[in-house]
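Let's study today's protein:

:::
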Amino acid sequence: MNRWWQLILCLVLAGWQLAGAQETATDPPSYKIPSGEDISSNEGIATYREQYRPQQYFPESAAWVGADIAMLAAILLLGCVMVWRQVHTRHFWLPAVLSLLYFGFLRGGCICPVGSVANLAIGIRHPERIGLSTGVMFLLPLAVALFIGRVFCIAGCPLGVLQHLLGGRRSHTLPPLPHAILRIFPVITLVATAWLALRGTCFLVCLLDPYKTAFFLGYGWIERIFHWLHGGLVEPGVLRVGDLMSWGIFAAAVLLGRWIYRPFCRFVCPYGVLLGLFSMVAFKRRRIEQSQCVQCGICEKQCPVDAITRDPKTREYTISSYHCIQCNGCSSSCRKDGIH
């Protein structure tokens, strides 16, 4: 694994260097407050308006663009290696925690391919509004899914990691009819998110996210600590984020997650629909070698998202590439090494 760590480190450093170069090239020129004589004419007023930059708000450094892309690429690469080599499922905590700390708390949960669904929908009408970070972060997990499946769900998604840490490890099996109905909801969410974004109404997926309050709280505290360490001004008192309703929704989602594994990912997330579709035609799809299967059913019990089912006629177990999140739980528990 040392070689992979070296490659990941090189990717991160390259991303920072690329972002630094981009920042130097794209940072706006310093703004100078004009005098009354400078804007006495109509032409001066137009120039003033064009060059005006509010002094109390500072745009985010372009270095974050390269850092975000490099971090996502590194996490997905590590996840792909772990899936390809069938590393035990308990070791997936490493890329998962990296994703939670970086994209969840350091970046506030807003730099995420899940939310970029709405951004890309807006880009259908206004392509100029799609930035480099949004486009790459939307396409990169899909490209990985086309190669080896939904690695992003288990290794790169802060929403999924938070649900995994706060929820139960094994979902209670729902009755067939409610389960089939709930699985349609992500498709509805995908269509509604794209439609509402195109109309300029709202970012539906962001409104439906019940975990954003926790991300905002972590982001706020990290920003406060950084400002304090650099000698900046920090407001006194305890930092509070969100109201009683937002925290109530968060608590309800956590309680639901104790009963149903990753409820948001499985029954709400619109990006999961796209990942599932790409995974269905992936180059490497997880499969069960029927010649080695002894019909013990352990893999079905270990699958947290009910991606493994048994055909009532042939009595054979099969894996749904659409729903499989590549957690390696089934291959780690198979006694006959029959899942690849």
